[in-house]
Amino acid sequence: MQLKILAVGLTALVTASLACSDDSVDTIPIITTGAAGAAGTGSAGTGAAGTTGAAGAAGTGAAGTGAAGAAMPFTAIAPCNSEADFVTGTTVSVGDATQFFYTPACLKVAAGTTVTIGGSTIHPLSARAGGTSPNPIGMHQTAGQTLTFTTPGFYPFQCDVHFSLGMMGVIWVTP
Predict the structure, then answer these.
(1) Among candidates 46, 42, 66, which has minimal Cα distance to 56?
(2) Quick one: pLDDT at residue 71?
(3) Nearest to 109 by CA among 59, 52, 171
(4) CA 48 to chain centre
(5) DSSP letter, residue 166
(6) Cα angle: 64, vertex 127, 143; to 5 degrees
(7) What is the mean pLDDT of residues 78-88?
(8) Which residues are within 8 A (CB) of 116 and not within 5 positions of it... i.e. 6 or more apart?
(9) How far, in Å, CA of 128 to CA of 159, rounded?
(10) Greatest CA separation for the chain
(11) Are 106 and 74 in contact, with CB atoms under 8 Å apart?
């Protein structure tokens, strides 16, 4: 994976280049906003300003570790680019062979919630880069997964086969 970081004020724009199962490379935008954290360092080198963490705990940014803060800020990860894109619930459905989307693509749940995410041989489910680590969503799952999300954060996922058609989503877990 290759990360490119552009930091301006309190916003960091990060793009990740991902190698796909069909040997193509896709670039996805990852935008982090919120109160500034300290500049961080990570495996990709020196990072942009980190985002703040939960109530006094150290937070993590797109490419590093930030300063402690009062609350976790919103992080836009395609296709969920604003807080208004998210709906509440406990299930993410996947369509048949003619449908290339998740319903809903942007799901918001409280920590401790159990969520069922659809997957199939036509639409294998995988975690994707750009969110909170570690992402509990498995890789190349050909059946649905039922997971309990205990840690607040953003957990992006995708269909391995139809990612380039925009078949992806994000689960936002709030404190």
Answers:
(1) 66
(2) 63
(3) 171
(4) 18
(5) T
(6) 165
(7) 97
(8) 90, 91, 92, 144, 145, 146
(9) 10
(10) 47
(11) no
Instruction: Give strand pairing partners of 117.
Output: 92, 145
The larger pLDDT score, comparing residue 25 to residue 57, is at 25
* Cβ within 8 Å of residue 136, ≥6 positions away: 127, 147, 149, 155
Other C-beta atoms lying within 10 Å of the C-beta of residue 97: 9
Q: Which domains does the chain have, with CATH numbers?
A: 1-73 (no CATH), 78-175 (2.60.40.420)
Could you report the per-residue pLDDT of 8-24, keeping only the tens digit for each? 333 344 444 444 455 55
- Residue 131 or 32, more confident: 131
8 A C-beta contact, residue 64 and residue 46: yes
d(CA 120, CA 102): 12
Q: Cβ distance 73 to 33 under 8 Å?
A: yes
**Closest Cα to residue 21, out of 126, 134, 102?**
126
Instruction: Answer for the pair 126, 154: CB distance below 8 angstroms, yes or no.
Output: no
Partners of 29 in the β-ladder:
15
Q: Distance between CA 121 and CA 62 in Å, rounded?
A: 32
Q: Nearest CA to 126 among 134, 113, 135?
A: 135
